[in-house]
Amino acid sequence: MKPRHHLYLDDELTEQLEALAAKPGSSKSAIVSDALRSYLARRGSKEIDDLLKVRLDRFGAQLNRIERDQQVVLESLALFVRYQLTVTAPLPEPDQAARAVGQDRFQAFIDQVGRQLANGKSFRGVLTPQTETRGQS
Length: 137
Known about the structure:
This protein is mainly alpha-helical. It has a domain at 92-118. The protein contains five helices and no strands. The protein has helices at residues 11-21, 28-87, 96-119, 123-127, 129-134. The longest helix has 60 residues, at 28-87. The two termini are 52 Å apart. Residues 131-137 have low confidence and may be disordered.
């Protein structure tokens, strides 16, 4: 058996409830029950939204730090490449041996990067170990 409740509603709300209950297949109890269930569900979801907002703000801050770090790395790499290209003299065209050595060195570099990424290791951690653990808390 369902418990009985006595509610007092103002005249305007009572008229609206009466109009909705006048439709076939509906009752005042069902309308009030659905409205109360919906209201309570919204309050619960607001609490969840408030809790998630804190986490999402934290994720946003972490993403901002990652983006900043990435910009620093890209700018550093771009400056290094620019410096290296301005300092290093170009190879003469007929010097195929020097070009072959350069290709071998480049391939060794690409292979090393691939191994580091496949193993989950980071050269950045070797250079600056304190930054490696900073973002993992």
